[in-house]
Predict the structure.
Amino acid sequence: MVKKGSKEERDLVRILWDENFAAMRAPASGGATKKPLPDVLAGNGEIYLAIEVKTTTKDRIYIDSQKIQGLCEFSQIFGAQPYVGIKFKYKKWRFLSPEDLFQTRSENYRLDKDLALEKGMEINELVGKDRQIKFLEEKTE
């Protein structure tokens, strides 16, 4: 049985290798260990990434707060930048910093397609190739 999301994890690892990053899936992620491990680790000597991978066919996904806390804890110890990598069906990868996620009243996290498109980085931004300029609509009173 293939673990749900492992296809996307392998796809992301391949993309990162294509971008000249050493990348690997953390085989013990997903509860096989008590230690907080991200799904994908990558680095190129300058940029180090710890990525929690999520995929969905819906417009919204919920993420357990312990997953995000573990991602941040691991990243701090390891010296990596923590990201949630989201792949909505038929859309490009988007990468969000944990602080960009919406925290629910139950203290878990919600990530919807609109937020991912608004605040999420594309792969070229994540690996330091491009900087996307996001224009914020000015609010008039």
